[in-house]
Amino acid sequence: MGSGRLQHSRAGDGGGVRETGTADKRNKNYHTTQRDAARRGAQIADRRSEESMAEEAAQEQPRPTAPRPIRCIVKLGGAAITNKGELESINEDSLRSACAQLRQAMSESEGDGAPEKVLGMDWSKRHGDPADPAVDAEWIAGMAGLGLDTNFIVVHGAGSFGHFQASRSAVHKGGLHSTLVKAGFVATRISVTSLNQEIVRALAREGIPSVGMSPFACGWSTSQRKLASANASQIIQSLHAGFVPVLHGDAVLDELLDCTILSGDVIIRHLAQLLSPKYVVFLTDVHGVYDRPPTDPDAVLLNEIVEISVAAHDTTGGMETKILEAAVIARLGIDVYITKAGTEHSLRALKGDVSSDTEDWLGTIIRSSK
């Protein structure tokens, strides 16, 4: 976006002018002062931390009151719901299990143990289906309600979707003047939004009234990769209406770089700051945070982390980002649970049925000492 850059140009004098008038000198001095002030302002802005910018962005957003407190923000990790070794490949079993557990966590009735008839909401015909979807409209019309506490927000990672397109075009570095970056921006968004649709469909098949929301389409943007604009009004309105918003990491516009990638973990942190959920759950492909890479046979699962210091743990890549964002959330007084998707431990986390003195729960609790 050109408006975010300072461009300086200087016309040659042709060598024929030896002196300038007083007005020209004043004009030159004025513009020099303005340029210096702009440089100083940019330097100061660069030194501002991402955390403080995010907090300011949260404060600037409208805060309509939710019908009841947000219960949980869930992160479906890309490594848990996709096959990362295969381009754009969904781990169907893991995704199905995660969606079924979300429904169980939302259920307002313990039931009598009998199989519950689920109101499937994916009424579209998929390629290869032999017949149109069957919809029992009469039964649905007679339902008193869904029987679900839908005050959840779901954010998912990209996994094997989007990363290939983004890395081949270096979208995260910006520069939409480049044809490769512009094409990569489009390709990345096609990929991540297609995954978002599949996750929404999987949730809908479990009777969860979910709606996909792309940060780019909602007007979220960054400034030098730091969150600058994040209007959550559409998310809050959807919660009011009884829907479960489903967001994802996305390619977005950047005020200084033209474009970049906004991660799902940053989205969760901002929403936690804005909406103050009771707890936050990260569902991953491992049981939690270890004191060293979990592939190491001597790795020890850290059951609870208080006043976390990332430097104290040997973490890399995506897990490091999760821990950094989780630490910010924990400082708000919100417990964060990190555990493996599709296990009894993830179901308990989604229900909020976890405490630090629970010995039979496998996962990591991150909380503030305050």
From TrEMBL:
EC category: transferase
EC numbers, comma separated: 2.7.4.26
Molecular function GO terms recorded: ATP binding; isopentenyl phosphate kinase activity; kinase activity
Gene3D superfamilies linked to this entry: Acetylglutamate kinase-like
UniProt cross-references to Pfam families, sorted A to Z: AA_kinase (PF00696)
The Aspartate/glutamate/uridylate kinase domain, residue ranges: 149-339
Catalysed reactions listed for this entry: isopentenyl phosphate + ATP = isopentenyl diphosphate + ADP
Any Gene Ontology CC annotation: cytosol
The entry's keywords: ATP-binding, Isoprene biosynthesis, Kinase, Nucleotide-binding, Transferase
Compositional bias annotation for Basic and acidic residues: 21-51
Keyword flag NADP: no
CDD domains according to UniProt: AAK_FomA-like
GO biological process: terpenoid biosynthetic process
Residue ranges, annotated region (Disordered): 1-70
Family according to the record: Belongs to the isopentenyl phosphate kinase family.
Listed name of the protein: Isopentenyl phosphate kinase
